[in-house]
Task: structure prediction
Amino acid sequence: MGAKLAATRQSDHVGGALFSPCPATGSPGSLIWWPLLAIAAVAFAVEVPFFFLGTPSGHDVEFHLYSWLEVLAQWKQGIVYPRWAELAHFGYGEPRFIFYPPGSWTLGAILSAVFPWKLVPSIYIWLVLMGAGASMFFLARQWLDRRDATYAAVLYAVNPYHLVIVYWRSAFAELLASALLPLLLLLALRAEEKGRRITLFLALVLAAAWLINAPAAVMIHYSLALLLLWIAWQRRSARVVLVGAGAVLLGAALAAVYLAPAIYEQPWVNIAQSVSAGSRPLDNFLFVHTTDAEHDAFNRLISWVALAEILLTAAAAWMARSWRSGHRALWYSLVAWAGVCALLMFSLCNPLWDVLPKMRYMQFPWRWLLCLGIPFTLLTTMGVRRWTSRVALYLAMLCLLAFVWHHFQPPWWDTAADLREMQDNIASGAGYEGTDEYTPVGADASSVDKDKDALRLIVEGPAHAAIRVSQWKVEQKIFTAEMSEADKLALRLFNYPAWRVEVNGRQVQTGLREGTGQMLVPVEAGANRVQITFMRTWDRTAGAWISGLALLLTIILLLRWNSPSPAK
Result:
C-alpha cells in the first residue's frame, strides 16, 4: 500500500501522460472487460423488476418517449435536426426541440430505429447506467486499484438517486448527464498540471452537458466553479481559474448550435411556466410541505433518500480521512463539493436560489443529488474498506428505497400495450400532450379541439371556401383556398415567429385566434395559394456557425498540442 500511495503522489505532481492511472497487474483485457461486465450485470439487475411489472412510468416518461418517436418520424421525412414538434398539443405543435437539448432524444431515436419499441426504454437505461459506471471507473482508477475502482463504478452506476430516476422520475436526459460528472472532477484536479489540453477537454465536457440537459449543465458549471476555486485556493494558483474560464467560453461556443436559439427565442414561448407553482425551488426543498398531497408524497420519498445519502457521505468522509496524506486535493475537493450539494437542498439556502444566475430554472433542489453521487461513491469506496461492510451498506440503501416505495409513493408502470399506444398516436397523427413551458406565447392548449379527426383548417368568418390541402408536413404546409369573400383561415397550428406565411407569393402577417392562439391566415376573395414554411431564423444560423468554428479550432489545437515536438 505504501508503494501505491507513493506512486499516486508522484502522478499527482509530475508531468507526463494526461491521465496517470494507479499501477496494476494483469492483462489489458482483464483490466477492462471484468469491470465492464460487473457494471453491465448490476445495470441489468436494476431492470429485473421490468420483466414482472412493466416499464417504469415516471414523471417525465411521456415527454421523452414521445420525443424519441417524433424525432424518428421526422428523420424519415429528411429532417436531420428537428426543431418543431408537430404532434405536441395533439397536432398544434410546439418548438420543443429548440429548447430541449438534443443529446437524449437523439440517442433515444437511434435506439427506436434499431430495436423493438417496447425494449427501447430498457435498453436506453441499461446503456446510460453502463456509461455512468464506465466513467466512474476511469476516474477511480487514477487513485484506486482495479478491485476498488470496479466497486466504485458499480456503486455509482446504481447509486440511490440513479434508482430514483429510473423508477420514479424517468428523467432520461439527466441520467445521461451523470456520465459527465466523473470526467469533470478528474479534469478539474488536473487543471493546473495540464492547463492547455485540460482546457480543451473541459470545454468538450461542458459542451456535452449543455447538449444533454440544461439543469444538469447549470449544476456542472457551478460545480466546476466551486472545484476550481477550491483547488486554486489550496494550491495558491490562479492558473486553474483561468483554465476553467477558458473552458466555459469554449464549451458555450461548441454548444452554440443549441444555446443560441434556446436563449434568443425564449421570449417566444411561455418559459416562465417551468418554474410555476409546484415546480419552483421553494416547493421542492427537502421535507417541505405544499397543498398538493401527491407532490408532497414524492418530496418525502426523495427527502429521505437524500438525507440518508448525505449522512452516509459524511460518515464515509470521516472514515476516509486517513487518505488525506496521499490524496489531499481529492479528499478536500470531495468534502467541499459534498457539503455545498447538501446545503443547497435545504430551504435555508433559498436566497441563493433567487440570486444565483439560472439556479431557479433547475426547479428541484434535490437535483443536486446527481452531483452528490460523486463524493458519495468515492468517499464510500475510500472509507469503507471491508467488502462485507460495503455489501451491507448497499443492502441498507436498497432497504431504504423499498421502505419509501411502500410507505410514500410506489412507482407507476407502463405495459407493452401502453407503449404501443404511444407508437399508434404518432403513426396516426393523433398526437400527445405538450408542455406548458414550450407552448408559444398567446396559445392556450387547454382550449383547442384535440380530436384527431378535427379539420386542419377552417374559415374563421362567414365566407364560404373550397379548400384543398396538397402538403401538410412538419416544416412546410401548402394548400389552396377558393374564397367567396376575404376572410381568415384558422389552422390546426400554433403561431410562432419562425413560421413564414405566403399567400399567392406575398408574405403576410398572421394573427392569433382568440381563445386558442391558433394561427390565423388572412386570405382574399377568389383563389389563394398558401405556403407556410418553418424558417431557419438568424439565431439558428449564427449558433451553427459559432459551433462549427469552435469545433474546428478545438480539433486544430488538439492536433497541434498532441503532435510530437521537433527534435532540437
